[in-house]
Write a structure and sequence with these properties.
elongated; about 190 residues; single chain; two-stranded antiparallel ribbon; mainly alpha
Length: about 190
């Protein structure tokens, strides 16, 4: 009986041709990711070689952010790094993630969402850690770029979603950002 079932399967699928593995959504690395990498390297060089202490002025400092109202720190901390190893670690994988995200979403959208992710990461860290919290680095930006890549639906060879998206692509971007912003506001109110 098993042989007849296998023969029926072969007969039913004879016209389909060779089996094709479903490809992932085609993605190209956008060359603008190199501009992002060069910007981070320039910021690191300026913080190492400059006459002013750029790192101290721009790192996320909970006391300065809350008590002195130095609100720029939540943004500037995403571009500063503690040392060359820290910068290299973020650039190593971050350039790939940013390049893929820029290829999928466009340079402007990917850059904005990744930066927003880094800022919200700093906001959540500030909400979860004591006021004496210090932080810097592009890790939040890199993780946001990875999150954008993970949010892309996988398509089969016919272009259909393997796992159907909950909503259309434009709405997904909007709803995801609302979710992240809502969570950040919740964390900040909790403090």
């Amino acid at each position: 009986q098993a042989a007849s079932i296998l023969d029926a399967y072969v007969a039913e699928n004879r016209d389909r041709g060779a089996t094709v593995q479903p490809p992932l959504t085609p993605v190209e690395i956008h060359p603008a990711c190199l501009v992002w990498a060069l910007f981070l390297m320039a910021m690191h060089a300026a913080s190492e070689l400059g006459s002013t202490n750029l790192r101290a002025a721009g790192q996320m400092n909970g006391d300065a952010f809350l008590a002195k109202h130095e609100y720029w720190r939540i943004l500037t901390a995403t571009a500063l790094h503690a040392d060359a190893q820290h910068l290299t670690a973020n650039l190593g994988i971050g350039t790939l993630f940013m390049g893929f995200a820029m290829g999928l979403y466009g340079v402007g959208m990917a850059s904005m969402l990744a930066l927003l992710g880094g800022v919200l990461g700093n906001a959540c860290s500030l909400a979860l850690y004591p006021a004496s919290y210090f932080g810097l680095g592009a890790s939040g930006v890199v993780m946001a770029a990875l999150g954008m890549l993970a949010a892309q639906p996988i398509r089969d060879s016919r272009g259909s979603h393997v796992l159907p998206p909950l909503v259309d692509r434009k709405s997904t971007r909007l709803n995801s950002s609302h979710l992240v912003i809502s969570y950040a506001v919740f964390c900040l109110k909790k403090k």
